[in-house]
## 1
Amino acid sequence: MKIAKALKQKNKIVAELKMLRERIEEYNSVISGNPRPYDITEIQVQLMTKMQELVSLKTRLAQANTLVYSKIFELSELKGLAKFYKDLEIKDGLSKDHRYDETQNYESELKVKQRDELVSELEARIEIIQDELDEFNALTEI
């Protein structure tokens, strides 16, 4: 199985685990005498089986990804940095600040245009790495 398909399978298993947990939560306690729509003991067995399946799949994915961990980690850090800069408030010039009753004159070393260009550069690098990882995931067997 290719990594791309394994990642889809992982998400499917995660959803199934969530559903099994919800059934245990919802149907563990019922009013005495009422029928129980699901056998909790059976669901617990299914839960443990699915959990082991997920652990096995995640392990195989992790082993396959050792070749591209640096790209995965770089991608994560670049996304965080891009978000940081996108959210960075830049005040430059006269502006009324909610902390002061009067207008303040702000100086910003990083200007809006510079920030926007930096974000564009980061996003371009993110796209390149994501494309490389997508190709790796589509071609690599686990």
## 2
Amino acid sequence: MEKFIWAFIVGGTICVIGQIMMDKFKLTPAHTMSTLVVAGAILGGLGWYDPLVKFAGAGASIPISSFGNSLVKGALMEAEQNGIIGVLTGIFEITSAGISAAIIFGFLASLVFKPRG
């Protein structure tokens, strides 16, 4: 039960940070999302994001900041095995399933729902 509470608190805190960025600093959603991805990448590169995921579970692994962590993790793993070219291949290898799912589900949603414009 305690794990659920921490997941809620950590995930909610990440969302609150994003909302504050949009409301107080007047950043667009795209700027906010990019900033959170970069923050997750930096925290992942420093080795701080994985302990946060272990502590908060889905509260840290579902927000967009986790995507930045995944990019860095994939790049570092492949760079160790394949050198500098592994940086590029690792980024795509570890995140390809999530990116593909987003594209496929976005396309399917566009077939079902009418866009407003």
## 3
Amino acid sequence: MQINPPYLMFLGDVHDQLAAKTAQGIVDWRAEWCVGQLRLPNCKADLGIADMTIAGAKAKGVKTLIVGVANAGGVLPDHWTSVIVEAIEAGMDVASGLHTKLGSKPEIAAAAAKHGRTLFDVRHSDMTFATGKGDKRPGLRLLTVGTDCSAGKKYTALALEKEMRARGLDADFRATGQTGVFISGRGCAIDAVVADFISGAVEWIAPAADANHWDLIEGQGSLFHPSFAGVSMGLLHGAQPDAFVVCHEPTRTTMRGVKTPLPSIADVIDLTLRCGKLTNPAIKPLGIAVNTKALGEAEAKKYLADLSAEYGLPATDPIRFGVGVLVDKLVADYPQSGKLARVG
């Protein structure tokens, strides 16, 4: 699919900033595509870009309205329909990462047909996937895993890609969620894949590659989350990661959306190793990525230093302090990675 920028980011009336993580991710990594945001009354999220109406966005040359939310169940509320129809009538395409398809709303489907506009349902792939086979394939792979969902797995993988490419390493971010697909222009939202085919879809996302090439696979959910562990397990088996980075948010006590206590980093490392060895017996942890946004500078540095000492692994905040220490360890652990500079 070819989704044409520039974009107007539609946030609806989401109840917190995290519910707008799709839009936030696009703004953070593709700011040049994002002209403004449209928020309904009582919206509790703010991307820090200009607020706009549909008419104002049209005047700025916006080509696509992005429904940039990630709510529970991926539903498209009925009261958002009129805004989407207005955008279509103004000449915009519409793209969404929700489970609910845009065209399932009769008013939206009719408006798109009448005005010749395209509806992009990024979460839904037209691919037919095979079941996962678990056969070792050439190339190197890193998977980001988490103590919870929404803990920085996508941002960590993207930061690693940026740093590794800057060093001349052959590395590609592989998107497994709707926001990652928006950012990279390719991939598959695996939480919309039928369960039997999740691992096969990941094998397709990160196929056989040069022996020195790294696929940096975006993690989803958590092996400990009662809602999303099934997706996380299928992703782990399909990725066959050689290395993994544990992503963590230190202020949470329970997992997002449920009352289940947050697991420890040690728990995540142990379970990832035990389950990951099914398809790659050589799997090992590379480091720890922490979202320290809620901590002060000195507190964050001490927290990361303490984690590093406790686990014997580099620990960093990928956005605040970069991922240099993680790439340093990757190159040290896998010296063959530096033998092939990225081409193209």
## 4
Amino acid sequence: MNALRNSVRLIGHLGDNPKVRKLDSGKTVANFSIATNEIYYDQSGKKVSETTWHRLVAWGRQAEVVENYLKKGSEIAMEGKLTNRSYEDKNGEKQYISEIVVNSLMMLDKKSEQI
């Protein structure tokens, strides 16, 4: 049996400006989200638009690109890996999160929109 690959490809718009920080280790990390839209017609012929939000995280050089070139509303195409992790919130309760670790991204905005 062939091994399955964990690969996600999305095209969407950033919902907010990326949050970028340097860790104590010196690594740069960027957290941001994108919205993808699906448009279809329901059984009655009515046009329906559904938006899905995806959490993304970029590390190292990718995080620096995100910090320098992307902002709220930027359109990107990206490929990455779906990951799941948990953390304790400020109340000590365990929280679970799914996010996509970005391997590559392409900016799709027109040049004048990227400035």
